[in-house]
Fold:
Amino acid sequence: MKLPIYLYGHPVLRNASKEITPNYPDLKKLLDDMYETMYASEGVGLAAPQIGRNDRIVVIDADPVADSHPECAGRKLTLINPKIEILDGETISRGEGCLSLPGLSENVNRVEHIRLSWVDENFTAHEEEISGFLARIVQHECDHLEGKLYIDHISPIRKQLIRTKLNNIITGRTRCDYAVRYAPKKKK
Structure:
């Protein structure tokens, strides 16, 4: 089932997520729904806060960007309770977009080499060193689990320049080709 993507301004995107346990109810269905939602939205990653759940769950299928980023070929990951360790302090600026910020793209500085530890849908533990654009995707999605968005990494001046676009998302004046959930209207 395709789920609505929660857009910028919705409070769920700013809350830190909690770890889940093996007895999480209907986990397989949730993961299937998250992948279906990500594919229908033409994304390469989706974090649980983006569908309104503050749980430490991320799905990634980086294969669609493999033509320009070979390290992404065949990389499909289900990350539960992921943890990132930075292995290289040097940052590279590259463009990023987000399903929760439709119509926007900004250059973001991120490290290119990380160590990722997580459990999969069967709660089997994994650890892997990841580099390049795949490391960027993982960092972007894991930021969501901490209540952060990629625009939190851009300069205040740049953020001011896109303020109108951000306000249009908050006020529902942005249209998407996928189902969305806007921020709740403020009570007067």
